[in-house]
Amino acid sequence: MQVITSLGLLNLVQSNKFTGRQDSHNHLRFFNKVTSTFRHPEVPNTSIKLLLFPFSLDDEARDWLDKEPPRSILTWDDLVLKFINQFFPPSKTTYLRNEITTFYQKPNETFNEAWERFKGLLRQCPHHGFSELHQLGTFYNSLNTNDQDALDSAADGNFLDKMPREGLAIIESKSKVRYSRSRPNDSRAITNAPSSTSSPSNNSFEIQQMAALLEDKMNIRMSRLEKAISEKNATTLATIKAVEEVCVTCGSNRNLNNCPLTRNNFPIFQDDIHQF
User: Fold this and answer.
1) Which domain-ending residue is among 213, 232, 251?
2) N or C: which terminus of the chain has fewer CB atoms within 10 Å of its end residue's CB?
3) Where does a domain end: 28, 59, 88?
4) What contacts 24+ positions apart, CB below 8 Å, involve 203-206?
5) How open is the CA angle 22-24-30, to the nearest 5 degrees?
6) Per-residue pLDDT for 66 more than 60?
7) Nearest 5°: phi and psi at 269?
8) Is residue 109, in this structure, part of any structural domain at all?
9) Which keywords annotate this record (predicted)?
């Protein structure tokens, strides 16, 4: 039975090979997830990872590992640091951090499209180091006036005064409503149109906007009610707290801030890996 499980694990590892052109963090996430399903009573999980990782590489990535000097990689931590430093260098981190901080909503981009693009940048650089509050503030300040006003309205005040979890719920709710799919230019055109010449289609669209705003507020109020109920349920709260966090750098069950391979939310890049 153990042999069958081992062969199945090897097949899974080889099903998603990293060639050097994909996202290195995504590859580590997949590899950590797959190898965490296998346990051996006499072999540490990190040793299993170290043994199987070469089978997950191909082409340029495999050539890189083969050219590493003998005994330069002795632990799983050694391998993770060298892998990230090779395929996600500090220069790429700097570039993506700049893309996040200078993010802005394009003129013809809907709210939902802007939000998905912003989340995509965050996923590309999971070690960006920005707090949730900073992320939401950056996104809010990048929006056009109409979308900022819509967020403030859904928040019953200043959106930026909300806690990060509430702010995220408001954004996710707004990104799913119908009027969020309309282009910013269309909204401005309706707002600036004289009331005496407004057509039935314009009136209909304005009614849809009002209905969507009401739906936003109802969703937020329902979210708060569900939160209050869940806080009173000790079993649910204990279950939520029991969820394990997995570090994106080393794959262990610990928070990114507590990882010895991380400093100030960034992986520690070293030119001389032998220091470890």
Assistant:
1) 232
2) N
3) 88
4) 205/179
5) 95
6) yes
7) -90, 130
8) yes
9) Nucleotidyltransferase, RNA-directed DNA polymerase, Transferase
- List strand residue ranges (DSSP E) for 53-120, in order: none
Residue showing tokens 């282009």: 183
- Residue 24 contacts residue 83 (beta carbons within 8 Å): yes
Residues with Cβ within 8 Å of residue 164, at least 6 apart in sequence = 131, 132, 133, 136
Query: Is the domain of 8 the same as that of 44?
Result: yes
pTM (predicted TM-score): 0.46
Asked if residue 160 belongs to a domain, the reply is yes
Annotate 149-185 with b (16+ C-beta within 10 A) or e (fewer). ebbbebbeeebeebeeebbebbbebbbebebbebebe
Beta-carbon contacts of residue 205 (< 8 Å; ≥ 6 apart)? 179, 182, 190
pLDDT digits (tens, 9 = 90+) for 122-179: 888 777 788 999 999 999 999 999 999 999 999 999 999 999 999 999 999 988 875 4
Do 151 and 69 lie in a common domain? no
**Is 10 in the same domain as 119?**
no
Domain tally, the chain:
2
Residue 168's SS3 state is: helix
Mean pLDDT of the chain: 76
User: Is residue 242 in some structural domain?
Assistant: no
Q: Are 38 and 161 part of one and the same domain? A: no
State whether 63 and 120 are in the same domain. Answer: no
At residue 54's C-alpha, the angle toward residues 51 and 60, to 5°, is 165
Quickly tell me which residue has 């407004």 as its tokens.
Answer: 198
Q: Sign of the CA dihedral 149, 154, 155, 157?
A: positive
Amino acid sitting at position 259: C
Torsion over CA: 191, 192, 194, 197 (sign): negative
> Using CA atoms, how far apart are residues 28 and 267, in angstroms rounded to an integer?
13
